[in-house]
């Protein structure tokens, strides 16, 4: 993911006299050479579609595999209020739940559903990263939103492009996301025996529409989530590279990615919680808990569990999202650099 230097901002603040003086100085004195990173970037060829998709997909798969234990803990906390007495949940903690998993299911259970997570994350990350770049280029063709439109235009392009890319990726890979949630939410009793069995059972018991339960909450949440994540990441990374151009690109991506993950998770976590619970409606033959739509489910959770119920599982989510988003952006940028170097050698 490439960021542009904000030359237009500085140029817009200069009056005509200062601009003319600057022009005269540049004719007599050549500008200093750009930092090595900018020189390399200037001569890098554009990545093709396949390397771009591969970089995004592998980045997502690596990130999800590294943080699978925390992801499963988050899901288990999010869905606890559906079929449990809320009063009994007050004593629960990350350590207590993690100990229960190890004691009852074994250490490997932390990666329960990780295969379907990878099967989902490969196309999801590929599509989201690829379409983000494409949406951004299309948006920059709109007058006022081009590359020299200033800071506000840059933020607008990143927000809109990120939101559209998230909605596109989520819509195309949603059944796998639903299966992943149901496999990860299973504890002692395994109603679904794998990806193919889960897909078949859901279609048999709930119809094809069952594969899209919670899609509304997903699209409502994933748009802002990806938009905030991409926008915060690129904005922070752009300013960091301008202020400290010689810092390690890997560390910049890791730090900015972690901060962007915290920002997006904090704002969109209630929507993610509702999405998880809607995905589990009717799972394993259980009765429906929420008889209303998206907003009715919000109201039901708030009435029965309070505001805290909408943020149930936020602590393991924070523990997960810092390394998760940091790793995905770091891996993505690293793979892009590798593929670009390979392309330049050919």
Automatic annotation (TrEMBL):
Database matches in InterPro entries: MCP (IPR002067), MCP_dom_sf (IPR023395), MCP_transmembrane (IPR018108)
Family: Belongs to the mitochondrial carrier (TC 2.A.29) family.
Keywords: Membrane, Repeat, Transmembrane, Transport
Highest taxon of source: Eukaryota
Presence of keyword Cytoplasm: no
Disordered: annotated span: 18-43
An annotated GO cellular component: membrane
Compartment annotation: Membrane
GO biological process: organic anion transport; organophosphate ester transport; transmembrane transport
Pfam families reported for this sequence: Mito_carr
Name of this protein: Uncharacterized protein
Lineage: Eukaryota, Viridiplantae, Streptophyta, Embryophyta, Tracheophyta
Membrane topology, from the record: Multi-pass membrane protein
Solcar repeat segments: 47-138, 153-239, 248-338
Low complexity compositional bias, start-end: 18-28
């Amino acid at each position: 993911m490439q960021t542009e230097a904000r030359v237009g901002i500085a140029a817009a603040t200069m009056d005509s006299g200062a601009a003319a003086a600057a022009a005269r100085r540049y004719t007599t004195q050549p500008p200093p050479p750009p930092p090595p990173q900018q020189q390399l970037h200037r001569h890098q060829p554009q990545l093709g579609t396949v390397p771009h998709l591969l970089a995004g997909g592998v980045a997502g798969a690596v990130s999800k595999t590294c943080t699978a234990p925390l992801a499963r803990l988050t899901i288990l906390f999010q869905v606890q209020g559906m079929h449990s007495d809320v009063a009994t949940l007050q004593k629960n903690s990350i350590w207590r739940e993690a100990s229960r998993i190890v004691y009852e299911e074994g250490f490997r259970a932390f990666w329960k559903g990780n295969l379907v997570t990878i099967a989902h994350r490969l196309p999801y990350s590929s599509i989201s990263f690829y379409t983000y770049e494409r949406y951004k280029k299309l948006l920059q063709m709109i007058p006022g939103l081009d590359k020299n439109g200033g800071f506000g235009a840059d933020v607008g392009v990143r927000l809109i492009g990120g939101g559209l890319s998230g909605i596109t990726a989520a819509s195309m890979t949603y059944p796998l996301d639903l299966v992943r949630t149901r496999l990860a939410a299973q504890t002692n009793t395994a109603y679904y025996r794998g990806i193919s069995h889960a897909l078949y059972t859901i279609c048999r018991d709930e119809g094809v529409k069952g594969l899209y339960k919670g899609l509304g909450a997903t699209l409502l949440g994933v748009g802002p989530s990806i938009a905030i994540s991409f926008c915060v990441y690129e904005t922070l990374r752009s300013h960091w590279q301008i202020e400290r151009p010689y810092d390690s690109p890997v560390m910049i991506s890791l730090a900015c990615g972690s901060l962007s993950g915290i920002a997006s998770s904090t704002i969109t976590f209630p929507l993610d919680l509702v999405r998880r619970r809607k995905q589990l409606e009717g799972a394993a033959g259980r009765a429906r808990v929420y008889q209303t739509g998206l907003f009715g489910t919000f109201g039901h959770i708030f009435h029965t569990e309070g505001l805290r119920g909408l943020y149930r599982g936020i602590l393991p989510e924070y523990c997960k999202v810092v390394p998760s988003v940091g790793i995905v952006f770091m891996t993505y940028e690293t793979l892009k650099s590798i593929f670009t170097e390979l392309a330049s050698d050919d």
